[in-house]
């Protein structure tokens, strides 16, 4: 039996992306706001063993003015500024996100060919007719350009829990 | 002359986890050579077998792309920062 990627049981997935609900919703909303064009941004956080814990998302501009509906590119100068910002907060760039307008939330050959941040997460949100649909995260694994590969990982969305402690 | 090289997340596994490395040199080329002397394993990640910088590796001196300066011959001064930035790009179309 062949399983579609989306049907893989969570237990089969080797790595995890942990993100708080406001950041998760914000990156999905970003794709709706730029529809029918692709959005893109960076994920800042920390590495925890094989997982990535997102503390902040940073929205970026898509420099692919020639075909923004199916391509994205982040200006390296923007990345340098983000890297500096991350270091000041003792965070690291742990991944990136982008949207696929009217296309599945699956990585494409273009995504893999142009992915070079091994060890980071690449989050893709399908935006269907302007509304955010499925969001998937793929860890870019491997040792080098020669054997890099995407593996889907579990996304754990953490709700912000208000402090409900009561003094008796 | 001492300057810094900013290492991106995916290459930090080759620099003992350090994000900033102090190097010496009078040009971008000699500064990167100084980096490779400290961490030789980085060479394969940054350069092709015939010694050219990989096409997806952007090198910036402070906020300027060295491709628009004098490339590897660009002069550096104390306190400068060289940033190594692998590109971030992609898009949909053919599903993998």
Sheet with the most strands of chain B?
Answer: 5 strands, mixed
What would the CATH topology of chain B be? Answer: Ubiquitin-like (UB roll)
Number of strands of chain A: 8
Oligomeric grouping of the chains: heterodimer
Residues in helices of chain B, as a percent range? 10-25%
Nutshell version of this structure?
The complex is a heterodimer of chains A (168) and B (96). Chain A is built from 3 helices and 8 strands, in the order βαβββαβαβββ.
Task: Explain the overall architecture.
- The complex is a heterodimer of chains A (168) and B (96).
- In chain A, 19% of the residues lie in helices and 39% in strands.
- Chain A is of the alpha/beta class.
- Chain A has a single domain, classed as 3-Layer(aba) Sandwich (Cytidine Deaminase, domain 2).
- In chain A, strand 5 (92-101), helix 3 and strand 6 form a beta-alpha-beta unit.
- The longest helix of chain A has 14 residues, at 21-34.
- Residues 1-5 of chain A have low confidence and may be disordered.
- Chain B is α+β, with helices and mostly antiparallel strands.
- Chain B has one domain (2-86): Ubiquitin-like (UB roll) (Roll), CATH 3.10.20.30.
- Helices cover 17% and strands 27% of the residues of chain B.
- Chain B has helices at residues 28-38, 42-46; strands spanning 2-6, 20-24, 57-61, 64-65, 81-86, 88-90.
- In chain B, strands 2-1-5-3-4 form a five-stranded mixed beta sheet, with helices on one face.
- The interface between A and B is large, with 43 and 29 residues.
């Amino acid at each position: 039996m062949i399983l579609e990627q989306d049907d893989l049981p969570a237990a089969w997935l080797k790595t995890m992306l942990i993100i708080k609900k406001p950041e998760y919703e914000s990156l999905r909303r970003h794709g709706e706001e730029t529809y029918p064009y692709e959005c893109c941004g960076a994920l800042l956080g920390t590495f925890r063993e094989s997982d990535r814990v997102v503390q902040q998302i940073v929205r970026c501009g898509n420099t692919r003015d020639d075909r923004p509906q199916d391509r994205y590119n982040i200006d390296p100068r923007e990345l340098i500024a983000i890297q500096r910002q991350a270091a000041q907060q003792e965070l690291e760039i742990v991944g990136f996100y982008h949207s696929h307008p009217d296309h599945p939330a699956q990585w494409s050959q273009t995504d893999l060919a142009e992915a070079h941040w091994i060890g980071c997460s690449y989050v893709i949100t399908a935006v269907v007719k302007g509304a955010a649909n499925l969001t998937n995260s793929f860890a870019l694994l491997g040792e080098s350009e020669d054997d890099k590969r995407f593996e889907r990982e579990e996304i754990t969305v953490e709700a912000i829990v208000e402090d409900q402690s009561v003094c008796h | 002359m001492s300057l810094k090289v900013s290492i991106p997340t995916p290459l930090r596994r080759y620099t003992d986890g350090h994000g900033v490395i102090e190097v010496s040199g009078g040009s971008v080329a000699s500064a990167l050579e100084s980096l490779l002397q400290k961490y030789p394993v980085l060479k394969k990640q940054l350069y092709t077998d015939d010694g050219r910088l990989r096409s997806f590796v952007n090198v910036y001196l402070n906020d300027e792309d060295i491709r628009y300066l004098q490339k590897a011959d660009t002069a550096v001064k104390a306190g400068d920062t060289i940033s190594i930035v692998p590109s971030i790009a992609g898009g949909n179309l053919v599903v993998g």
